[in-house]
Design goal:
alpha+beta; 6-stranded antiparallel sheet; elongated
């Protein structure tokens, strides 16, 4: 694959040639051209070739020698005397298997506490490695069977004592993201299992509501929801306990503590024990992956043979961006709420006020 060149990259490659032994130069040059290929020339005008050449060598060696199945995270304040190059910023390097939402999630972690990212270079390489794991070739092919990400970012300079906290935050983000990606299919499968159970169950819920709930859950599964986690609760002997195996991010977080149902506020208890099949709420903590927003929680209640609520299954996640552009009349459950509001308004749908309300 041809990779565009630039005067800056040409000078950077000349610097690499002077710094590297002959056997290492060729693969490092290929990596460098691919790594800098998408950076606009105007973004390079105020950068120092010598520093970027040394940084590229460090990035190449980290990428070359890594375990391709693992995620490597480096955070540093490079200094000439110690590292052979310098930057006015704190430098973050992340090498990882290519996986969805990695760049989005890293950027969320980097923006914590108002930190600004001044430069970002993220490239997904198609990588060939030999039996010992050594790189034998890199390209930018999109359909290659083995693809690996390298992300290089320069952010507001941190004090040395704050670097560890950022690296720890990045590590937690990666752990959650790997759990979400690894369990994504299992979460969607669990949703289908619950839909099947609802279809076959005898529930203390009107058939129309049950049908709308099933349609809504099927709508969720049709790429309208980014699944972050799944867990289950059982209500036994006045206690609410988390049970079973959680999935996604909730698998790597602490389990929910046991709570007494009788200790809950009246409104909360009524919400938990009502005969409605679905419940909706918001998480109090912003998502650390994909999008920095408060995730939605969708609860699916479980009933015993007498029609009493005995537990709940819950999915945590984010509605996908296209949902916010959708006509509410096309969204199951929401469309019923819209129709109810319009009906209760007593306004003529074809009149001025009715159209404004719609």
């Amino acid at each position: 694959m041809n990779v565009k060149s630039s005067s800056y990259v040409t000078r950077l490659v000349d610097s690499l040639r002077n710094r590297l032994p002959e056997g290492e130069f060729e693969p490092a040059e290929r990596f460098a051209r691919q790594f800098w290929s998408r950076t606009p020339e105007e973004d390079l005008s105020e950068r120092r070739v010598e520093d970027d050449a040394a940084a590229t060598i460090e990035c190449w060696r980290l990428f070359r020698d890594r375990d391709p199945a693992e995620v490597q995270i480096n955070v540093m304040n490079p200094e000439h005397g110690r590292d052979g190059w310098q930057s006015r910023c704190t430098v973050v390097q992340v090498a990882a298997p290519d996986m969805p939402f990695m760049v989005d999630s890293v950027l969320i972690a980097l923006s914590h506490d108002g930190l600004i990212t001044h430069h970002l270079n993220n490239v997904v390489f198609a990588v060939d490695r030999d039996a010992q794991g050594r790189i034998t070739g890199t390209t930018l092919e999109r359909d290659h069977s083995s693809r690996e990400l390298f992300l290089y970012a320069e952010i507001d300079r941190l004090d040395e004592e704050d670097i560890g906290a950022l690296k720890e935050r990045l590590g937690r983000t990666v752990v959650e993201l790997k759990a979400i990606v690894g369990d994504f299919a299992a979460m969607k499968e669990q949703l289908q299992t619950l839909i099947s159970e609802i279809r076959e169950a005898t529930l203390p819920v009107p058939a129309e509501e049950t049908g709308e709930a099933i349609t809504f859950l099927e709508w969720l599964a049709a790429d309208n929801f980014f699944f972050i986690g799944y867990r289950e609760f059982a209500y036994v002997d006045d206690t609410m306990n988390q049970t079973g195996q959680s999935l996604g991010a909730l698998r790597v977080r602490s389990r929910a503590s046991e709570r007494r149902l009788s200790d809950q506020p009246k409104n909360t208890l009524a919400f938990l024990m009502s005969a409605s099949l679905l419940s909706f709420s918001k998480s109090g903590t912003r998502s650390s992956v994909h999008r920095y927003a408060y995730p939605d929680y969708i609860g699916i209640k479980r009933f015993d043979s007498d029609g009493r609520v005995v537990g709940e299954c819950g999915f945590l996640g984010l509605y996908t961006s296209r949902v916010y552009l959708e006509d509410p009349n096309n969204i199951p459950v929401v469309r019923r709420k819209v129709a109810n509001v319009i009906d209760r308004s007593n306004l003529d749908p074809s009149g001025f006020d009715g159209k404004v309300l719609a």
